[in-house]
From TrEMBL:
Homology family: Belongs to the GtrA family.
InterPro entries to which the protein is assigned, alphabetical: GtrA_CellWall_Glycosyl, GtrA_DPMS_TM
Localization per Swiss-Prot or TrEMBL: Membrane
Record keywords: Membrane, Transmembrane, Transmembrane helix
GO cellular component: plasma membrane
GtrA/DPMS transmembrane domain ranges (all copies): 27-157
Name by which UniProt lists this protein: Flippase GtrA
Gene Ontology biological process terms, A to Z: polysaccharide biosynthetic process
Transmembrane feature ranges: 25-44, 56-73, 93-110, 130-151
């Protein structure tokens, strides 16, 4: 019995079928939680040290690192029963969609800082930190996560096997 199955077995019956039906979403959420902590840790480590004058750059770097971890965890756990594409093609799609996600994750922080001027000297350091966290770690995360969930299921890890020509190895092993 897998760890997920043992957790599902402890859920009260009325909710168990709902959890089983949305198992993939729950796994995606767990991966998201793990990468949220990676993203947040790197973001603040950079923002409060070597990249203090460049919070958007700090955010982009943090999201990129979290995205690499996310690909591995999603490929091997959340969506392991989906796909069927060649790994190179799948990884390319994943990182293109994640690149769009980086823009979506970073846009609210950029708006907060450079459009609304929620930064020192225009506001206090406390307001700046609250605005950065709200824009970068909450709003950006929710917008980016919703987009990535939809796009990953539609294009990167589709439910049906994509049509593809058999590889040389497939043709040889079919003989």
């Amino acid at each position: 019995m897998s760890a997920v199955d043992s957790v599902l077995a402890r859920i009260p019956q009325p909710y168990r079928s709902l959890a089983i039906q949305h198992r993939e979403l729950l796994k995606f959420g767990v991966v998201g939680a793990i990468t949220f902590f990676i993203d947040t840790g790197i973001f603040y480590a950079l923002k409060l040290t070597i990249l203090s004058p460049k919070p958007v750059t700090s955010k982009v770097i943090a999201v990129l690192v979290a995205t690499i971890v996310s690909y591995v965890l999603n490929r091997e756990w959340s969506f392991r029963t989906r796909g069927g594409r060649r790994r190179r093609y799948e990884a390319t799609l994943y990182f293109v969609i994640s690149g769009i996600g980086v823009g979506l994750y970073s846009a609210p922080l950029w708006v907060s800082r450079y459009v609304l001027h929620l930064q020192t000297p225009f506001t206090s350091r406390l307001v700046e930190e609250i605005a950065d966290f709200t824009a970068g770690q909450i709003i950006g995360l929710l917008v980016g996560m919703a987009f990535r969930w939809w796009a990953f299921r539609k294009w990167v890890f589709p439910a049906e096997q994509p049509d593809r020509r058999p590889s040389a190895r497939d043709r040889i092993s079919a003989r």
